[in-house]
User: Fold Peptidylprolyl isomerase from Sulfitobacter porphyrae.
Amino acid sequence: MALGLALCLLVPPAVMAQNLYAPVARVNDRIVTEFEVQQRQRFMQLLNAPGSDRENVIDELIKDRLRDDLAARYDLKLSDEAVQSGLSDFATAPTSAWKNSPPRWNNPACRSRLSAILSSPSSPGAT
Assistant:
């Protein structure tokens, strides 16, 4: 056991950070992994959304876990229709709602494709 601890202390932090499944934060009995942080950062950057820095992303992932825990505690669930409605609202938002978005999201062809994907039979909540 002491040898294992000694080996952990000898491993440089940069090497430990390369473990994508290393815990970054613990929320109750669940963890947030480095992989989740990196994926959320990439997604936020793709959307050109504010708060894509590491600290804000970790805070938001922690808040997600807390919301999930509360929803589970009170048995709150979204219907398939509510999920589909939210996705459709996102895809058909007025151009003014996209004003700070990257040009590719304002592109009518991109928005049309997103709407088609959301209305396809294989998308969540589609009939």
